[in-house]
Structures are given as structure tokens and as C-alpha cells.
User: Fold Adenylate kinase from Flavobacterium weaverense.
Amino acid sequence: MTNIVLFGKPGAGKGTQAEFLKEKYKLTHISTGDVFRFNLKNDTELGKQARVYMDAGDLVPDELTTKMLIDEVNKHSDTNGILFDGYPRTLAQAEALDAFLVSIGSKVSATVALEADDEILVQRLLERGKTSGRIDDQDESKIRNRYEEYNEKTAPLISYYDAQNKFHSVNGIGSIAEITDRVSKVIDSL
Assistant:
């Protein structure tokens, strides 16, 4: 299995890139945001718990996020690989993902970080918030809080994956096609 982790702050283009990459490499795309929205929309117990954190602009706790993601991965046991979009976001999640993948005879193949300036990303999210209906994309202070959480909790994963020679940084500014080409070069080199 080829398992790719897409990193990047909210608005960096992970979901957009995932749409192209899943087709090109025949991977199953698992978006943390989509998994959360499914649980929220269907008012599951996990969704109710996640709503409290998301509405405040905070990251959902590791244990809850990991439970949702493992449940989702288990639905796709016959896949060529997984494209993780928005997970892991913390060291604890990365360790939990590694342990889970080892338990099913797999591993993370690479991590790809879409890098972009915060000010550009804030504007992207505010624009997206005008049409997405997502409360967390309509309030600049909540967006900036998400970036602070990212810097505090997610950025340390760079060292974790870099130590395993699995971390790749990609410029996330440019046309969708240009960014897809940059990410594809990383995946093709694996």
C-alpha cells in the first residue's frame, strides 16, 4: 500500500490536491474534515463530541480524531493506499497512525506539506467561507486560532517524519496544475 499524508494549514489546498492525486494514483482519499462533517451531519456520538471543539475553532482531541480515522480506514481494506488529508495533526496522532498501520502490515510512505503564507491562506478561507457554510471559515479570529494550533501541534511533525526520511515540503502557491505537478514529482520519486 502507498500511504501519503498531506500536510498544510487550513486553506493550503489539501482537499483540492487530494482530488487529483486520488485519481492519478488510485488511492482512497480520507479527509479528516469530511469524516468530521459526516459524523456531525449524522449527529453521531463522535460528531457531537467533535462539534464542541470545531465550533470554537479548536482541533478535535487526538483520541477522538484517531477513532474516527481508524474506523474510516477499516472501511477500505482493499485499497491500493490511503491519501490522508488533515491527519495526523499531532505527534500522538502520528504515533497512533504508525502503530495502526503496522498492525495491518502497512506504513506511511511519505508526507507532503503544502506550504503557503498565512495571510494568503486567511483570505482563501474567508472567501471559501462565503459559500461553504462552514462557520470555522467565516471568522478571521477562529482561522488564526486554527493556525496557532497548527504551529503548536502540527509543525513538530516535520521533525518526526523528517527523521524517517518521509517529509517533503512543496510550494502551495500557484495554479492547481502547478501544485499538482510538484506533489506528483514527490510521489513519483518514492
